[in-house]
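User: Thanks for the earlier help. One more: 3-isopropylmalate dehydrogenase. Can you show the sequence and predicted structure together?

Assistant: Of course, both are below.
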Amino acid sequence: SNPSLLILPGDGIGPEVMAEVRKIITWFGDNRGLQFDVSEDLVGGAAYDAHGAPLSDETMAKAQEADAVLLGAVGGPKYDDLDFSLKPERGLLRLRKEMDLFSNLRPAQCFDALADFSSLKKDIVAGLDIMIVRELTSGVYFGEPRGIFEEGNERVGINTQRYTESEIERAARSAFELAMRRGKKVCSMEKANVMESGILWREVVTRVHADYPEVELSHMYADNGAMQLVRAPKQFDVILTDNLFGDILSDCAAMLTGSLGMLPSASLGAPMSNGRPKALYEPVHGSAPDIAGEGKANPIACILSFAMALRYSFDNGAEADRLEAAIEKVLADGARTGDLLGEEGVTPLSTSEMGDTIVAALNDS
Ligand code: NAI
Ligand code: MG
């Protein structure tokens, strides 16, 4: 049977950008024989409006069964006053938690045509293609004890950085597996100079590396890593790091490449019985209420998220390359949504015109 793909468009610009992904999926079905069993469901505010909860148990069960989940975005001002447990974001958090998605993949890829959008000089970022692997389910955001406690005559706020060997090992394995499909280099970042969790992290990553002799492993203190990311980002291929450092380093890397409308992501979990990892693909951006409903959203982040699904869930790196090359081509030809405008005299494309332009480039590929 065909691999299954669960689509959760969500709120705001989510459904708008997802409509363009549907065109791309249809193209691959019609032209490259890639058939998926696609189903669509509600998440976030849209699910709350229909069911009174940001993710129904039925949708959660479908996500657990799917070979891959592709999500648009959740949230919006309409839901700001809802109870914490009913907020749209809780739907997304429930997916991540119950699917146990421990490995968060954030590529920072600079399309040459957009190098001017980088916060850095063009020659530092042109051709940049790195991947940050952030451990997503443990570390200081989850470790116990945590809380605000009385201590003498004042209060103390406590969070605990805590990593087990198995948590480090599975994150490391996912980074090495990824590196095998890319430039075969992993740089692991922690602070082993001042943190015991960092010492253990370095030790376990080094041990797992023995299973991947083809991959070159290096270690770097995370503060130096932040500096190197801005100084000379092209020295990296895959960066492996923990939840806290990954949060910061991936936001930093994102700005190397320019618009939020261009950034995809993947969150992977343990392999299912068919060998595919549990997987959720989503653009980094949110529901963009300021432009929702106007046909202005850039669909590329969501389309690139589908390219990641082709590569990491459906083992089809060649078709993922084809899709990324089509995007590279339309950008080189000057196609721009409003968020990518800088040059004068360029008329922005609408969301659906950008989708159609990419389909046309696929037809020429
Ligand atoms: P946002 O990412 O939605 O928007 C930030 C800015 O970037 C806005 O000016 C927006 O117009 C622009 N932008 C974002 N994506 C774009 C695209 N594809 N094309 C063109 N321009 C784009 O972040 P914001 O404004 O902080 O949050 C808005 C809502 O989204 C909130 O409810 C927030 O909670 C939610 N959110 C959801 C996320 C998710 O679903 N994963 C992630 C971040 C925020
Ligand atoms: Mg962050």
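User: Great, one quick takeaway?

Assistant: Residues 102 and 271 are 12 Å apart (CA to CA).
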